[in-house]
Design goal:
The complex is a heterodimer.
Chain A lengths: L1 H10 L12 H10 L4 H13 L1 H16 L24 H9 L4 H13 L1 H12 L26 H49 L6 H25 L45 H5 L14 H14 L2 H7 L5 H20 L2 E4 L11 H17 L3 E7 L5 E8 L3
Chain B lengths: L2 H23 L2 H17 L9 H19 L6 H4 L1 H4 L8 H10 L3 H11 L5 H8 L3 H25 L1
Helix pairs in contact in B: 1-2, 1-3, 1-7, 2-3, 3-8, 6-9, 7-9, 8-9
The chains are: A mainly alpha, B mainly alpha.
Chain lengths: 408, 161
């Protein structure tokens, strides 16, 4: 009972009490904890001195409480136990703005500092960075050359038409001048030939007035030239056809009496076989001049002029006669009609004749030939087939002329 | 624009336009056709186009042609695209690039276009708006939503890994 009373008193106010074997343990624990006052401490030590066995236990207890070392153990993740102050979902727009570079410098700095401060925000930032795409340079368009264009110049339609028209007109003018020159040349050649023919005719006509002595001399020269002429003919590839009455020997000598040109003897010489082409001049035929068949050639105006000029100077009738070209009807016409024939040939393909009589004239005028040439050029350029249709009447005259398109 | 400038545009921008179209429609032949049509349209109006504006003209024409093509083929579908899950099973990804491409393919064509114009070509919101026919705020919204969607897809994949 006394013990219970004493224990109860210990809980409240500390009272002086007697320490005995039943309560000394409380005093010892208080002493170790440092809660025992001085009076109680003295009483405790007095009691322990009276009880050596209890004192030994007290000493042991007192030493052991000081031998346990203090360990410094700390909890590192204490921050995780603390509540966070940011909502990551609220930062999505800012993080996207940071990626898109839409934030100002101040906002960018604040956000970057928060990213460094909060790891979860840093993770979010890393995820948003992955959404930024990078171009795959392996994806290329092959065969870019097929898309390129070559440089060219677009020429307007009007310019092209104008150029073609100008070319057309130039061609017409050139053709006109060519035709004009050809006609002039033909006319000149005709005049020259006519003049020479007239001179030859006059000379031949005046032959009868030549004195006898001069006649003999001319005859000799003619015979001599006849041999030269025969040589020339041989050179051209044909043998001279000489009258049997005038045999030619090597010495080129002929008896005068056998001279067929000796009109005083009035010898008629059997003419050589009639040559194919003979001058139409009556005077030449009547004088029975040996005819030498010269190979028919196309006679050029210059050659004619040279020959006639040289022989007329010598006043040698025989020379003139033999060297005068045996101008045939065809060659007489060839100069003057050469160009016309050419024009007719080029123009004939563009003409359709309707009811054309056989006796209708084939000649076309210069204007018609120019027009037909223009038409042929037009057909060539435009790749069309336009022709001239001429309708003839019974008299062989052109009644109607029309342009028709064929093959469309 | 001269012929030389046109040919320079072909050399400089043909790849970029082709890449833009191909990443959108995932069809090589159609992408080539669209690129050819685009450059033909540009050649027809070569005299009216300034060289400095050629790139934006190309992307605008290509985008419009692509949209027309997509709308024309709207009622057609490839068997492989529709039943791809039944034909193959591949739930693993070799690298992050595949994940990103898959995330990108989940976007609609407008979002894909604006994101590519932003990331590949570096166009501003205003320029993208002119190309796609949207205003600036619409472009911004499309880009933000596209990035958010892609981020969620990539984040969920990484969480699973």
């Amino acid at each position: 009972m006394q013990l219970l009373i004493k224990i109860k008193c210990q809980k409240g106010k500390k009272m002086e009490m007697e320490i005995n074997i039943n309560n000394y343990e409380v005093f010892v624990i208080d002493f170790i904890d440092g809660k025992l006052n001085e009076i109680d401490t003295a009483n405790l030590f007095a009691f322990l001195n009276q009880n050596p066995t209890l004192k030994a236990e007290f000493d042991l207890l007192n030493n052991e409480s000081n031998s346990i070392p203090l360990e410094t153990i700390s909890f590192d993740s204490s921050s995780l136990l603390k509540p966070t102050n940011i909502d990551v979902s609220q930062y999505a727009e800012k993080l996207i703005g940071l990626i898109e570079n839409d934030l100002s410098n101040t906002e960018k700095d604040v956000l970057l500092s928060e990213i460094n401060k909060y790891p979860e925000l840093k993770n979010e930032h890393q995820l948003f960075l992955k959404t930024k795409l990078v171009a795959d340079t392996n994806i290329v368009y092959k065969n870019k050359e097929s898309l390129t264009q070559k440089p060219f110049r677009i020429i307007p339609l009007f310019t092209r038409i104008s150029a073609i028209a100008a070319l057309f007109i130039a061609v017409i003018i050139i053709i006109y001048f060519i035709n004009n020159n050809s006609n002039n040349q033909v006319a000149n050649n005709e005049a020259i030939v006519k003049a020479k023919q007239d001179s030859i005719s006059n000379i031949i006509k005046s032959k009868n007035n030549i004195p006898k002595q001069l006649q003999l001399e001319n005859e000799k020269q003619m015979l001599a030239f006849g041999g030269v002429n025969a040589a020339l003919v041989k050179k051209n590839g044909k043998k001279p056809m000489v009258s049997p009455a005038i045999p030619l020997n090597k010495n080129n000598k002929n008896p005068v009496k056998e001279n067929p040109l000796n009109n005083n003897n009035n010898q008629s010489i059997s003419p050589a076989p009639a040559p194919k082409k003979v001058l139409t001049d009556v005077g030449l035929q009547n004088n029975n001049i040996a005819q030498v068949d010269i190979t028919k050639t196309e006679v050029k105006p210059a050659i004619i002029e040279n020959i006639l000029a040289s022989k007329i100077q010598n006043n040698s009738v025989a020379a003139i006669q033999n060297t005068a070209p045996n101008i045939t009807e065809d060659t007489e016409k060839s100069l003057s009609t050469y160009v016309k024939q050419q024009l007719q040939i080029t123009g004939q393909s563009e003409v359709i004749a309707v009811n054309k009589p056989n006796n209708a004239s084939e000649n076309i005028t210069l204007a018609e030939s120019i027009g037909l040439n223009v038409l042929s050029i037009y057909n060539m350029v435009s790749k069309r087939d336009v022709k001239v249709k001429k309708t003839y009447n019974n008299d062989g005259e052109v009644e109607k002329v029309r342009l028709v398109a064929t093959g469309w | 624009m001269t012929v030389t400038e046109y040919n320079t545009c072909v050399k400089n921008y043909a790849d970029a336009v082709y890449r833009f179209i191909y990443k959108n429609i995932k069809d090589e032949d159609k992408a080539k056709d669209i690129v050819q049509d685009t450059f033909v349209k540009m050649w027809v109006k070569v005299d009216d186009i300034i060289a400095e504006k050629a790139k934006s003209y190309l992307f605008t024409a290509a985008y419009n042609t692509m949209i027309d093509s997509i709308r024309k083929d709207k009622y057609k579908a490839n068997y492989e695209d529709h039943y791809d899950d039944y034909l193959t099973t591949n739930n693993t990804f070799n690298d992050l690039k595949e994940v990103i491409n898959l995330a990108f393919s989940k976007l609609n064509e407008t979002q894909r276009s604006v994101v590519m114009l932003r990331d590949y070509e570096g166009y501003s919101y205003d320029e993208i708006g002119k190309i796609t026919g949207l205003n600036e705020s619409q472009v911004k919204v499309y880009i933000y939503r596209a990035r958010l969607s892609m981020k969620k897809f990539i984040g969920s994949y990484e969480n699973v890994v």
